[in-house]
Amino acid sequence: MLSPLWGHEYMEIKTFINKIKEAGYDGLDTWMPEDPVVKRELLDALQHHELLLVSHQHQAHGVDFTAFKTSFLEYLHFSAQGDPVLINSHTGRDWFSFAQNLELVDIAAEFSAKTGIPVVHETHRGRMGYSPGHLQDYFDARPELTITADLSHWVCVTESLLENFSSTIGQAITRTRHIHARIGFEEGPQVPDPRAPEWKYAVDRFLSWWDAMVEQRARIGDALFMFTTEFGPPPYLPTLPFSNQPVADQFAINHYMKDLLRTRYAEYV
Q1: Which domains does the chain have, with CATH numbers?
Q2: Which terminus, N or C, of the chain has the lesser number of Cβ atoms within 10 Å?
Q3: Which among 46, 58, 45 has a CA at the least distance from the CA of 126?
Q4: Does 268 score more than 90 pLDDT?
Q5: Mean pLDDT rounded to a whole number for the chain
Q6: 3-state secondary structure labels for all residues of the chain
Q7: Residues pairing with 239 in the sheet
């Protein structure tokens, strides 16, 4: 079980890593800091506590595809620092052509072949994998393509619990290497609090997908299958009008999800 750094950037990095170690996490899911001092502190703290690292590539940028492609490969190499278990990639743009995004998938595959670090492509809004219907074309073109399943984005984009995408969901289950365990709903990427009874219907649906993903990885003998409890801070986490106070505590929600998933999948993770 991994904790996100997202939402806790205000904390001194060593303090936060101590916090997640004490909370019982196995590692951290985050992007590499640009500041070399902070990066060194991060990697030293992870090593000291013997915590795993999933590195998050979301920084690639460019005014056109050619510039983005160059930046994408640069940030894959940047994300490889610290010997991550895998790189979770925000690959491409939803407005790039199919051929352009596919070129980025192939660049990532070549990078993985050379470095031995898996690159998995997150199902994220605004990116190549922003919707199930869109990603199906990439599944068809690249049988080896693997994903970080964050189905909260698909639920939000399609305004559904994916009832009409059973075939694509089936393929996503077989291709998932990593799960971002955030629960979305038809009108948003994050329910306010998964502990609240009014969100049980969404929690149950996400658990059913995660059950299938975990069972699939167990069938093929994957000895290291990871969840990141990725409930985020405001504005993902709703706030009260005028005071802007969060309606719940982000760390407490993620801690709850960690314990829920660890109990549910005790024989696997």
Answers
A1: 2-264 (3.20.20.150)
A2: C
A3: 58
A4: no
A5: 97
A6: CEEECCCCCCCCHHHHHHHHHHCCCCEEEECCCCCHHHHHHHHHHHHHHCCEEEEEECCCCCCCHHHHHHHHHHHHHHHCCCCCCEEEECCCCCCCCHHHHHHHHHHHHHHHHHHCCCEEEECCCCCCCCCHHHHHHHHHHCCCCCEEECHHHHHHHHCCCCCCCHHHHHHHHHHEEEEECCCCECCECCCCCCCCHHHHHHHHHHHHHHHHHHHHHHHCCCCCCEEECCCCCCCCCCECCCCCCECCCHHHHHHHHHHHHHHHCCCCC
A7: 246
Q: Tell me the C-alpha distance between 246 and 259, whole Å.
A: 22
CA within 13 Å, CB half, 87: 28
Q: Can you read off the two tokens belonging to residue 16?
A: 């936060």
Residue 269 clears pLDDT 70, i.e. is over it: no
Report the alpha-carbon distance of residue 160 to residue 177 in Å, rounded: 24
What are the residues facing 88 on neighbouring strands? 56, 120
> Token digits for 107?
């660049």
Q: Which residue has the tokens 């620092």?
A: 81
* pLDDT tens, position by position, 161-193: 999 999 999 999 999 999 999 999 999 999 999
Q: Which residues neighbour 97 within 8 Å (Cβ) at sequence distance 6 or greater?
A: none
